[in-house]
Prior knowledge:
Helix content: over 70%
Number of domains: 2
Distance between the termini: 41 Å
Amino acid sequence: xxxxxxxxxxxxxxxxxxxxxxxxxxxxxxxxxxxxxxxxxxxxxxxxxxxxxxxxxxxxxxxxxxxxxxxxxxxxxxxxxxxxxxxxxxxxxxxxxxxxxxxxxxxxxxxxxxxxxxxxxxxxxxxxxxxxxxxxxxxxxxxxxxxxxxxxxxxxxxxxxxxxxxxxxxxxxxxxxxxxxxxxxxxxxxxxxxxxxxxxxxxxxxxxxxxxxxxxxxxxxxxxxxxxxxxxxxxxxxxxxxxxxxxxxxxxxxxxxxxxxxxxxxxxxxxxxxxxxxxxxx
Length: 282
C-alpha cells in the first residue's frame, strides 16, 4: 500500500469517525425538534415517517408549553437557581482551591483528592440530612432550598478541578506580584485568577448544568407549580399517569436543552483548556 493511499484511508477514517459522532450527538436534538413541530395527527399516526414531516409543521406545541403550562416561569426559576448555585460555588471553590494548591504544600494534593472522594458519595445518601437543614432554615418549597443544597454536590468536584489547575501555574508569578507590593489576596485576584479563567469557566458550566438538570432534590424540596424548575415542571405537568403529551414534552425539552448545548459550544475551547493549559506552564 502506497503512502498516498494510506493517507487517504486515514483521512476517510477520520471523516467517518467524526460523522458517526456528529450523528450520535445531533440525533436527540433533531428528534426533539422534529417532534416539537409535528401536528398531533402526524405524530400519532404509525403509518407516517417518524423521522420527517408528513404534514405541514405547526407551532401548537410551543404555544401549549407557554400558554397552558408555567414553562416560562420554570425557565426563569432554573436560571435563578443556576446563577445562585454558580455564585455560591465560586465563592467557596476559589479560596478552597487556592489554599489546597498553595498554602498546604505537599498535603494539598492529597487533601484535594480526599475532597474529590466526597463528590463520589451518592447525593441520595445526603437527602435526609439535607432535608433537615432545609426544614431548620425554613426554606421548604422555595428556590433557596435548592441554592443551599446543590453546592454540596458542586463544590467538591469544582474544588478538585480548580486546585489542580492552580497548582500548575508557576509560583513565581504571584511571588513577583507580591514583590511589586501586592498582598497574597491581591496576587490571587490580579495575577492568578485571570490565568485561571478556563478553570473558572469549567466550574461555571458544571455548576449551572448540574443545577439545571438535577431532579431528586428539586422534586422533593419544591412542590408548588410556580416554584418548580424545568427538570421537574415539564414531566410533572405534561405526563398524566401513562399519558404522555409528546408534542409539548419535546417542545419544552428542545427549548431547554438547546441553550445549554449552545453554551457548551461557545466555551468548549476554554472548557478543554482548563485541563491542558496548566500543563503548558509546566
